[in-house]
Input
Amino acid sequence: MAMIEVYTKFLCPYCTRAKRLLDGKGAAYREIDVTMDRDGFDAMVGRAGGRRTVPQIFIDGRHIGGSDDLAALDAAGGLDPLLGKA
Output
């Protein structure tokens, strides 16, 4: 089973969309809410190569990107193999 981490903020529609896609795949993930967590936000920015928007998604430590990146990966058929569903 893949280890998935999703950095989010409160009331973020892109975060909701990404989580909905993962939920639809039956994928378990760890949500890291950085709304009021400066250290968590700084850690996310560091891991995401300077990207400051949410969500930022990591699968098995690999940076996937944001919600649009996750959706594009799924549309291209690349998400299921990362989730172990190939």
